[in-house]
Prior knowledge:
The chain folds into three domains: 4-199, 3-Layer(aba) Sandwich (Rossmann fold), CATH 3.40.50; 246-360, Cytidine Deaminase, domain 2 (3-Layer(aba) Sandwich); 397-513, Cytidine Deaminase, domain 2 (3-Layer(aba) Sandwich).
Amino acid sequence: MKGDKCSQKKRALLSVSDKSGIVKLGRKLQQLGWEIISTGGTARTLGENGVAVTEAAAVTGFPEILGGRVKTLHPRIHGGLLARLELEEHRRQLVEQGILPIQLLVVNLYPFAETVAQPGVTLADAVENIDIGGPAMIRAAAKNCAHVAVVVNPDRYASIIRELSSGNTVSAETRFKLAAEAFAHTAHYDAIIAAYLSARPEAGGELFPELLSLPLQKIQELRYGENPQQQASFYALGVKRRGLAAMRQLQGKELSFNNLNDLQGAWELVLEFDKPTAVAVKHTNPCGVASAETIEEAYRRAHDADPVSIFGGIIALNRPVTAAAAGEMGKIFLEVVAAPSFEEEALAILGKKKSIRLLEMAPIDPEETPEPELKKVSGGLLLQSVDREPVDLSSAVVVTERAPTAAERRDLLFAQRVVKHVKSNAIVIAKNEATLGVGAGQMNRVGAARIALEQAGEDADGAVLGSDAFFPFPDTVEVAARAGVTAIVQPGGSQKDSASIEACNRHGMAMCFTGRRYFKH
């Protein structure tokens, strides 16, 4: 070794799973006089394309072993990445140990996420795609970003080539930014592995582990948040795209923060129903919901439930959008229409309204455990399991002298499916499997009932009422009775249940207790 002269030679280590763009980068480095160290498949790819490489084994003096599990885990690699060249002691040790510094590390990792996303993947296959040497090198280079540039994203190659072309070096500012990206990359990689292993039955499938890392990846930047003065982006959670992260936009303007927030409520609600159903949502609350024999009739009735609020709203359907439904929807301004699919004629009809966003929603796997719901609070996150248990009145207890009729029971079930997705305090008035009035997000239950009944108007006569929680006083029963409501469904459990039951009996109303609360905040 020739001491200082050798230590000045530019050196790059290239070892990538995703080989897109690596040959172009290698050729540029060779043209600029860099020595290129490489491993396995990357070395073969570069060599086959005329790029001279030094095998990592020639640097370490040690062969790859254990089927490639160990090849770069060696002091001559990590010493070259971690040496602080401003320190005389570090330089002296490099010379003594025959280690040459490495100024550029280009690494991306074994495709663990892609592997576990494949159907039928085995645990053994997943484990073999956990990269060890790659993250170790990335973290070493990122820690030493004062001297080493680390590149983990092939999209960065073009900008690296531009910088090298102008001065054969990567600026300190760029090295720092690359280091931050590198640590985010390895953290995301480890979070995916942790999430996969934690969900395995061998790990007990714990829903709320002591330490939780969320693998989030940005899908798109949004124009702004809830208001123009707020910035916003949409991130996908986990390896497998699902829910809103898996939808496909067929037409229209880019989605906004509020569109996505409203769509979440609309889609979760429409999935409650087996019968053709249409849901209209405004500001995260349903303003019109209806079930019918056809999807076009369901939409028409959902529209008529609140023709004022639906304007500029979000529509979710649980059936393909037909030409007839599209013709009805085309009569007013809507922000979003989301459905499992769209007939060609429906696309042609709605295509005349270029700004409307048409979304093809991905199906939900009934065998898949949904990820927990998250809510941000100051200094942390609240997590809870998703309530996907179907609303069912088969075990509801009739607590009044009169039992609900078959028609009332049908509408009580419908109302309770809707109320589950309305912000608390929540009251839903329904008749013939359509909402007539929705009282959402009120500070007291009778206030929510008055709003819903005022919206229903004279149509409340003969309708039913659903409540997301028990009645602490009989006042809700009294205002419902005056409006003509004939049956009520609620969880029960108040210390004053008897007062509400007595009020129902006095007015000849039926009431059922479900024992299940549906608070939504």
